[in-house]
Amino acid sequence: MTNQLELSEPAFKTYPKHANISAMMGNSINYKNWLYTNHIQLFCASYTDKNSVQTYLDTYEPLHRLHYPYIEKKSVNKDFFASLKIGAIDFVRYCIDRGY
Questions:
Q1: Residue 95 class from Cβ within 10 Å (0-12 exposed, 13-18 middle, 19+ buried)?
Q2: From its phi and psi, is residue 24 left (phi > 0), alpha (psi between -120 and 50) or beta?
Q3: Residues 6+ apart with CB under 8 A from 98
Q4: For residue 48, what pLDDT band results from cuts at 50, 70 and 90?
Q5: Over the stretch 64-87, which tens digit does the pLDDT of each residue have?
Q6: Residue 51 Rama label (left phi>0; alpha psi -120 to 50; beta)
């Protein structure tokens, strides 16, 4: 039996890091309440890069969004991933099939 990751239409598509999470969480019952309360605040940041000031607009991510109420985030060391000797797509399929 193969599991399938249920995806929804992402709330925003500008940056993959936001769109991917939005697509994975979008089918949850209270997702929109959480999204509008915690994720749609905009901020503008500036930093100096080689004697010029760069400014960008992004959505606010407190603590780089360590907590998502509808998904569990896991990290994998790149050495561990490389030792598996499988491609990224096969790795994602493996994880989904095991309920990760």
A1: middle
A2: alpha
A3: none
A4: confident
A5: 555 666 667 778 888 888 888 888
A6: left
